[in-house]
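Final report, closing paragraph on structural work. Over the funding period we assembled a curated collection of sequence-structure pairs, and we close with a single example.
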Amino acid sequence: MSLLAPFVDFPAPNVAAALIAGDRSETLGDTKRVFELASVTKLLAAYGFLIACEEEVFELDTPCGPATVRHLLAHASGVGFKEGDATKEPEQRRIYSSYGFELLASELERLSGIRFADYFHEAVCEPLGMKDTELWGSPGHEARSTVDDLAAFARELLDPTLLHPDTLAEAFSVQFPDLDGVVPGYGMQKPCPWGLGFEIKGEKQPHWTGENMPASTVGHFGQSGTFLWLVPEQGVATVMLSDKPFGAWAKPLWAETNAALWREL
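Its predicted structure, as stored:
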């Protein structure tokens, strides 16, 4: 039986998925179908920003907006979800923010003279063969892609070729560890661990990954009904894309399905 079989029962018109787990890797559904990613976009954009750090466009501790590149990637800058929202001082609370990613893109464009969508395409999509991935709007939530492309991205996350392993290890490490904050749809988490663009499971409850999965699980989910998670030390990742928006239906189903998948692995 396919380890991804439970995804077939998701109540969405279209569902596609991929499991990357060595000789147990498999796919489900139309892996070439293009889906809106919503906030899974942040993982792709973060990778572009980290490449920019290695290319010395800026550094993690370069001032950007009201804080630094590191603060913005880790949702610790104090800026609100969108431009114009109320703000706090940096390092006071984990405030989930797409606007922070927009500030990063604007700063990269100012320093490099290259539109971020083009920089991202050249730095990430082209070398990984992600020909059906497009950043069409906000780097916080407006990209579209396929399971095939995101599986290629997940393999890169498990065995990086575009970033130094130390840079990626930093991205998977908790930044500003004492911060509390809200995971959209899941409420206040105390603390609310986050890396550089990557959400870190930690001890969060409730959570969209399985309760039996390691605290080191990293990834992101999107309001369009999408998620990507990986457990780096185990060399395992899963991508799921659908076209049913996240809601009450998803919270128990995603957690139960991911928990069952992890038990089988």
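The two ends are 13 Å apart (CA to CA). The CA atoms of residues 9 and 170 lie 36 Å apart. We thank the funder for supporting this effort.
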